[in-house]
Amino acid sequence: MSPTALEDEKAPPLKAPGIHTVPIVQRPPADRLKGAVLAGLFTLLLLGMHLSQLVLWPMSLVPGGVRELYWDYIRFSKESWTKCLLWISQKTTLVVTVDDSIDLATLVERDEDGTFKAFKFPQRTVWISNHQMYADWIYSWCLFSYANLHGAMVIVLKASLRNVPIGGPAMRLWKFIFLSGSWESDQAKTGDTLTTLGRRATKHDKSLSLLLYPEGTLVSVLTRPKSKKFAEKLGIPDMKNTLLPRSTGLLYCVRTLLPVAPDLAMYDMTVGYPGLPPAGYAQSYYTLMSIYAAGQAPPEVHIHIRALPLASVPTGAAVPLGKTMTPSEINAAVTPEERTKFDEWLRARWQEKDAMLQGYYETGHFAAEKHQRVEVKLGLKGIDDWVAVGANLVPLYAAYRLAAYAYATYL
Question: Burial, 232: exposed, middle or buried (Cβ in 10 Å; 0-12, 13-18, 19+)?
Answer without folding.
Answer: exposed
